[in-house]
Amino acid sequence: MPETENLHGANLIDAVYGDGPPPPDDPAECYFEASKLHLRALSWDVPGGLALDQSEELQLLTQRAARSNPSREILPLPDPEPLSRDFAEVIDARRSSEDFGPGELPLPTLSGILERSYRVRLVNGWPLRPVPSGGALYPLDLYVIVQRAGGLRPGLYHYDAFRHGLTWMREVDHETLHLATLQPEMARDATAILVIGASFWRSRFKYGQRALRFCLVEAGHLQQNILLLGTAYGLATRPIGGFLDDDFTANMDYDGVNEAPVYATLIGPPGDGSP
Ligand SMILES: Cc1cc2nc3c(=O)[nH]c(=O)nc-3n(C[C@H](O)[C@H](O)[C@H](O)COP(=O)(O)O)c2cc1C
């Protein structure tokens, strides 16, 4: 029996809270309390629910849930590389890699990852996506920081999930971003860094304080799709949740308050030491 079998995670409670209760203004506890739902206060807790039910205009607006850059040229993505690996095998094989090898990320592979993780598809006339989203509001956008992919100019691209294409945004400071992942070697070797950004207000107008929870939960859904697709294509992947926020934000088009990068993925061909 492993030595850790009888240890309970709750043993860490003392390490977090010390001798007494946390201060009444503990931000995490205040937020969690503020974001709870109560049956008798649902119209306060979910302030936009009624407005959305009653406004056709608002319903139409929310169906275009994405950042859009209509004045910028869009680079259409090719047909996705087919997938053939067994689903159970993919689930079993997914690991956070520490070793990214040389080579490029082919465009059809990138296309497959973006299409099957976040592309809009019409289902009974509704623009839905491969991942679930609270109220189908889709507060997230997906960005690709290209380093070596499909012969593309390195830099920041926005994934247009309606048109399945990439919009060139700008050059980025790759070295700063590598350091900002706190895994500079891995980030440097990856062919691309996918960044999930959240426009919190796209969920918050309806769900109030609950929206932040939804955005983060949904980022997990999207991330899992990305990781499994990467694995299915034989790529190495590593999720990055601990990054220097200001450095990431400064290299993107987010203000870091109402909209912000929340999660990233390193992706690329595996190196010799990959699991
Ligand atoms: C929310 C979250 C945040 C993470 N952030 C980082 C990170 O910032 N840097 C990193 O190297 N790995 C990060 N990881 C990867 C974990 O270290 C890894 O998932 C864990 O060691 C278990 O290994 P496995 O993914 O191979 O199962 C993160 C994973 C999750 C789920």
CATH topology: NADH Oxidase
Low-confidence runs of at least 5 consecutive residues: none
Rg from C-alpha positions?
Answer: 20 Å
Number of folding domains? 1
- Overall shape: it is globular
Q: What is the top-level CATH class? A: Alpha Beta
**Structure classification:** alpha+beta
Sheet with most strands: strand arrangement: 1-6-5-4-7-9-8
Number of helices: 12
* N-C termini distance: 25 Å
CATH architecture type:
3-Layer(aba) Sandwich
Give a short account of the largest sheet: 7 strands, antiparallel
3D architecture notes:
By secondary structure, the chain is α+β, with helices and mostly antiparallel strands. The protein has one domain (34-268): NADH Oxidase, CATH 3.40.109. 36% of the residues lie in helices and 19% in strands. The chain has a seven-stranded antiparallel sheet with strand order 1-6-5-4-7-9-8. A two-stranded antiparallel ribbon has the order 2-3. A hairpin with an 8-residue loop joins β4 (140-146) and β5 (155-160). α6 crosses α11 (210-232), α7 runs antiparallel to α11 (210-232) and α10 (201-207) packs across α11 (210-232). It is globular, with a radius of gyration of 20 Å. The protein starts with 12 loop residues before the first helix and ends in a 7-residue tail after the last strand. The mean pLDDT is 93. Flavin mononucleotide is lined by residues 95-96, 183, 238-242. Residues 95-96, 183, 238-242 line the site of flavin mononucleotide.
